[in-house]
Amino acid sequence: MIDSKDLQLIKIIQHGLPITSRPFNEIGNQIGMNESEVIERLTCLKNTGLIKRFGVIVRHQRLGYTANAMVVFNIPDQSVVKVGEMISQAKYVNLCYQRPRQGTNWPYNLYCMIHGKNRSKVLQQLDQLIDTCKLSQFEREILFSRHCFKQRGAFYCTPTASSDLAFSVAHG
């Protein structure tokens, strides 16, 4: 069961962790918990599924990676997990995940993201990926980004939520 301390913790972390050597200690100081209690509660919230994922958002464009391609593949369902595992091993693949196909106009079920400093490097890496993972026989599309949208994690608590839980998810 979630309590008021968990709710306070969720409200703080949804805005990101403080950039410090001990972020969980700093968060704990804000809400009257010690560092180990913050870590323990976050672990419990993740293990129960209330927090789905805890990770880093890299602002790749600020680092000079301005050529960004989402590559989508139409992989047979019986092979998609194996192929996805191979693709995700490539050091230049940042994301790799499966999604359901969307009718006959969008038959793709495996997505991967490649970030690069220029378009030709991304295409070179894609050629290498296709060769290494033996993907040439699969239908695919390469979708280069034209705009970088705001990236952020899930938003769990509405700004008007008081002591009761009001959850919503906003993806950006």
Protein topology:
Blueprint: H1 4-13, H2 23-31, H3 35-47, E1 67-73, H4 80-88, E2 93-98, E3 110-116, H5 119-132, E4 140-144
Describe this structure in words.
This protein is α+β, with helices and mostly antiparallel strands. It has two domains: 4-47, no CATH class; 60-144, Lrp/AsnC effector binding domain/regulation of amino acid metabolism (RAM) domain (Alpha-Beta Plaits, 2-Layer Sandwich), CATH 3.30.70.920. The chain contains five helices and four strands, in the order αααβαββαβ.
Summarize this structure as a short list of keywords or feature phrases.
alpha+beta; disordered C terminus; about 170 residues; four-stranded antiparallel sheet; elongated; Alpha-Beta Plaits
H/E topology pattern:
HHHEHEEHE
Please state roughly what percent of the residues sit in beta strands, choosing from under 5%, 5-15%, 15-25%, 25-35%, 35-45% or over 45%.
Answer: 5-15%
Structural class: alpha+beta
Average pLDDT taken over every residue = 83
Query: Regarding CATH, which class of the largest domain?
Result: Alpha Beta
Shape descriptor reads elongated
Order of neighbouring strands in the sheet with most strands: 2-3-1-4
Biggest β-sheet, characterized? 4 strands, antiparallel
> How many separate helices?
5
Query: Percent range for helical residues?
Result: 25-40%
Radius of gyration: 20 Å
